[in-house]
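User: Hey, my collaborator sent me this sequence without any context and asked if I could get a structure. I don't really work with proteins. Can you help?
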Amino acid sequence: MKNTCINVILALVALTCSSALAGPLDWPKATNECRPWAYHWWLGNAVDRENLARELQRYHEGGLGGIHVVPIYGAKGAEARYLDFLSPAWLDAFTFAVEEGRRRGLGVDLTTGTGWCFGGPQITPALGCRMKVVRRLTLPPDGKLPAELRPPRLAVQAIIAFGPRRKHVDLTKLLKPDGTLDWTKPDEHWSVYVLGHRFTGRQVKRAAPGGAGSMLNSFCTDAMRAYLPRFTAAFDTPGVARPRAMYHDSFEYDGDWSPDFPAQFARRRGYRIQDELPALAGQGDADRVARVRCDVSETLSDLMIDQVFPQWVDWCHARGMKTRNQAHGAPANWLDFYALADIPETEMFGHGGPDPLVSRFDEHLGGADRDLLIAKFASSAAHVAGRPLVSAETGTWLAEHFCETFEELKCEVDLFLLSGVNHIFYHGCVYSPDDAAWPGWLFYASTQMNPRNPLWREAPALNAYVTRCQSILQWGKPDNDVLLYWPIHDAWTRGVRNMSVHNKAALKGLLGETARALWARGYGFDYISDRLLEPMKVVDGRIERPGGDSWRAVVVPECRQMPPATLARLLDLAEHGATVVFTQDLPHDVPGLGRLDARRAELEKQLARLPRLESSKAADSTSLRQISLGKGRVLIGSLDEALGSAGIQRETLVDRPGVKFIRRKHDTGRHYFLVNHALKPLDDWIRLATPAQSAVVLDPMTGRSGVVALRHTPDGAAEVHIRLEPGHSIFLRTFERDRTEGRPWRWSKPGPVVTTLEGPWRLDFLKGGPTLPKPRRLNRLESWTAGDNPDGQSFAGTARYVVEFDLPAQTPVASSLFLDLGQVKHVCRVRLNGRNLGTRFMHPYRLTVPPGTLHTKANRLEIDVTNLAANRIRDLDRRKVTWKTFHDANLLNIRYRPFDASTWPLFPSGLLGPVQIRRAE
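Assistant: No problem. I've predicted the 3D structure and written it out in structure-token form, which is a compact way to encode the shape of the chain:
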């Protein structure tokens, strides 16, 4: 029998989201894309219809909106169940998953391959990852090249002799089949360079049966052309279901060359790379080396964005499928690579604190690889290119396996939402048949967001929160004021390549300081690239993309080298009425080496369009210069002064420590998503930078909403009173012209203690394992692991605490009160006198007691508490039970070493209290 409370929660969410927005206090209609999805690893593709149907039903009941199937290595002992990827049996299973998912309201995505990255048996070494080799050598007397520099170990593309004053001679045709070079250098000033490429041997990581093979060359058009026909044959077969979207994982290819790279380079950059082999090898004049390096990086980027991955996008679109792409890590312009996809996807990686066994909301939340400014590359590409969805791989190595709490997962979700993400993908859950012993089949790097985890019982509460958040964040349009130019050519010139979510320091000296200043000062912004800037136009002084989204200014951070076409585009925007801000100075040079003199002359021509500088009209300004240009202007200097001069108001709410926001437009106002990442409550009036006559608070944790108090300052700005506990979040829906009517929203905080519920308590263990401990009577609350209690120390699951109590005389039962549970390890569901008060999975574990719920006498409080799986896993390893039975990576810990929980401490579990009734103030 399905759990009644879970169904009640789901019914309430469905009721909230089932119809279009009927009034100003309503939540938007939620589709399955509003609900969180999850990576769904198919170990060995060992899936069957019966277990798939059960798993999909559990995901539906848990509140997921869809799954992303990732075929991967298998479980030991299940080899007889394995299905080869794209075989008829696999396609039948996948079609069943899509159709069964659709029947339950679940979407299905699929990696275009197995494991990661793209590759497989159809990719030969010639089409696999290729690494360039450029070597200066001294020819031996017999003229024979070293074995590593001649075929077959190296595909030689050029042999060039370089002499004084950049003289050079092409010797490539002089290479004999035996590897001998029939050439004598004129004198000692000449050097011979060899250019070629070799197969790196890079194989698909964590491949599934039928998917093993080389990774494809991500810069080679022929490689992608050879890769896709296998999928054409599979998914063009009548009766085979197609996923909603195909997926490409983050860049973990290891090549940097393609067989046709020299020809592509010459066509795109206007000179031969063969003529610059000393610079390509990093030798000679430093400026020339840097310029060649920039041109090589730009060519690699062009190949990925213009030729290779558009084939995949076009192939998907021709079959009615969307694309999801993680661009980070690629040696391409991130923004352009993200923008190729229908759904750009980012990720955060790693645990924020020093102790991987501790998962909670505290000061470590922003540590490790959790950086909003990195995640904003994906959302910026989506906003600027007009993509409505931005996804995120969420929960990768959130903490050590089985130590992850919903509290920290919720707070990481909030970081993504603040960065512009609106389509969460948990990382994740694993298909596991019911006959697999607990904890079932597992993936080595994920938060265990699956039905075997005891916390899954309360997953509907977390997923209802995410659903409500995303229903708003997928509605309306972004409302950022600033476009921040991404000076990618400066990065390439500096040698920055393959930036990832792990090396945020690479942004330093590029746009990182300006981005952090904008964020810290409360300016909403999106990054923009040279390409994405090109189609922008100016409408009524705003910079508008085709389709309608617009920004009020474009900001150029410190930028030493800029393509003349980009500067021309910026000045064109200014002439048509836009505001363009340079935070340092105008660019003084062009990047790259090709046509250098001509391009420098073009840059000077563009700079000459600017009339003389005028001083700022700001009374207290000494650092801002402005240039009137056509209908608009160019501002140079202080970022704050420039944006203020442009009439762009910052959101001063960020001046309160830890308070963060993201803002979106709706038809009659704005939505603010507000999060308190401080370690103390926010309780204050906040000023809004946008006009508002009224406002509504919507609480995504509870689904409640109401009209909140709003006042206006003497200068006409709107202020709203907000109260938020640490780690908590709310939505503020403002209305620019209308005064909204409806039920009022009242902030309340806990006041004096009315009574402390000392007990005695009855403790019954409801569900979990390895065995259910015996019921207990507790005179005081403590962890159920306390004392000589082997069953309690190994138990993972749910237990119910029951207490009956009377209230002190004169308790105002007709007024709102708070039930404060103190410490809870880790999720609780609460009923008072038969009334469901809700589920809590983060601090403070405090619930509102509606008027009339309490009685003066004979009250009954029931609290179901679910703990982490950690103690049960600890018990397995202490007893040396064999449960880590997976091929390839098997199970690794957060430090990528073999997993062993036998030395873990016991994790406190249950209701620790104190449990108190408090007045609400």
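In plain terms: The chain has 20 helices and 45 strands. You can pass these tokens on to your collaborator as they are.
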